[in-house]
Q: What sequence folds into this?
């Protein structure tokens, strides 16, 4: 880094022959001092912004949820549907088999809704996502 600055200073001195070497160096030093002052102001501003952002950010506490699979022996579609917010449940089709409750999207979910649904299935219902192309679905075990 210092070599690069030194090379730039040499180039600057060589380009401008109207000044003597000492006044060129004084001019360069003056400009460097100005840049240091500007960088200090920017650094102080960034530190203040960072401090303000840290003060305004609050961590949202997530309540501890007991998974439904731990409290019931056999889950039903109604048990599973009650876990989902109404807007998300409306986007889903629920199907019951002997071993699983399957959840399929009625429409394109988008990344945000998919993530919300996947989180509920995994964290609260003990289920998983099964990637199978057009037959992809969420699968929740009925038995605990």
A:
């Amino acid at each position: 880094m210092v070599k690069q600055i030194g090379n730039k200073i040499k180039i600057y001195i060589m380009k401008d022959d109207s000044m003597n070497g000492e006044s060129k160096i004084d001019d360069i030093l003056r400009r460097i001092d100005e840049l240091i002052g500007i960088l200090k102001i920017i650094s102080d501003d960034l530190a203040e912004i960072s401090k303000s952002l840290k003060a305004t950010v609050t961590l949202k506490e997530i309540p501890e949820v007991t998974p439904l699979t731990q409290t019931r022996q056999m889950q039903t579609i109604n048990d599973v549907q009650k876990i989902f917010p109404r807007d998300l449940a409306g986007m889903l089709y629920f199907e019951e088999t002997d071993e699983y409750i399957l959840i399929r999207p009625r429409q394109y979910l988008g990344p945000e809704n998919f993530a919300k649904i996947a989180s509920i299935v995994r964290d609260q219902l003990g289920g998983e996502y099964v990637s199978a192309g057009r037959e992809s679905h969420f699968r929740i075990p009925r038995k605990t």
The chain has a mean pLDDT of 79.
